[in-house]
Every structure is written in C-alpha cells, then in structure tokens.
C-alpha cells in the first residue's frame, strides 16, 4: 500500500460518484438505499467466493482451478459498490482516513486475515454490513488475494466503461 495507491482509490471514488449520478438520473432516483447497496455488496461477495471455489471446495474432485481474471472481475464489482457506499454513506473522499491511518488500518486488516483461520471469510462478510469501514478491509482483501491496487484500478476503469455502455443500452 502506497500513497499512489490511495490516490488511485480517490480517483475511483470520483469515477464512481459520476457513474452513480448517471445511474440515478437514468432511473429517476434521488438517493441510493443503503440496505439495497449492502445487498449488492453481499451478492458480489458471493460471486467472488464462487470464483474462489477451487481454493476452498475440498470435497469436489471436478472443481475447476481458480481463474485469476475472473476473480479480479468479481473483486472489481465489489469495489464498485464499496466505493458507492463510501461516497453515499461515509463522506466520499473527505470521509476517508488520512493516508497514514488508511495504511495502518489496511495493515491491521491484513494481519487479522492472515492470523485467523477464517480471516478472509470474516472480512468478506463484514463488507456488507460494517457501519464504518469498508474501503480499508477491501484493500486488505485485495492484497491478500494477490492483486495490486493498480491492477484493480485498471480493471475498474475497464468495467466502468462497460457500465456506461450498459446504461446506454438499457441493461
């Protein structure tokens, strides 16, 4: 985790705010419902865990191996909704901790993932209902899964374009 990574996250927050604005305009919404957003995060966590199934499904001999590109795709979908939550319910960029505090909180989250037998499961589950912190645990999850924030940023930008295309086509 570097200052550059935090800057990329701030850029994604801005991009997500614009996307949310376009979505709300398209669907005549004035606010985003926090419970619905929590469901969206939970749903994407489920899709991510499905893509990770080759790592944890010990009882199925025919389970295909984990596909890193698919995992990154699902992880980015979680990023979209967590960024939306940060923008709408935790003050956006201004609601973020200081750079040093973010790095410290990410280190704490990464430590708890690595030290506890169910750490990744707990952190993933927490994303849908934690009332205060979602970005920092998601950074730690991202790093734990072996992805750099720069990779997430690039995949986020690519998916952001797809999301605008979906809006235009009536997805």
Q: How does this structure look, described?
A:
This protein is mostly helical. The protein is 75% helix and 0% strand. It has 8 helices and no strands. Helix 1 crosses helix 4. The longest helix has 25 residues, at 3-27. The chain is globular and about 45 Å long. The N and C termini lie far apart (35 Å). The model has no long low-confidence stretch (mean pLDDT 94).
Overall pLDDT, averaged?
94
Query: What is the count of β-strands?
Result: 0
- Estimate the global geometry from the Cα principal axes: globular
The largest sheet, given as strand count, sense and whether it forms a barrel, is: none
> What is the structural class?
mainly alpha
Output the helix-strand order. Answer: HHHHHHHH
Cα gyration radius (Å): 16 Å
Low-confidence stretches: none
Summary, kept brief:
The chain has 171 residues and is mainly α. It is built from eight helices and no strands.
Describe the SSE topology.
Elements: H1 3-27, H2 34-51, H3 53-56, H4 68-89, H5 99-115, H6 119-129, H7 135-144, H8 149-169
Helix pairs in contact: 1-4, 1-8, 2-4, 2-6, 4-8, 5-6, 5-7, 6-7
Task: State the main characteristics.
globular; 171 residues; 75% helix; 8 helices; mainly alpha
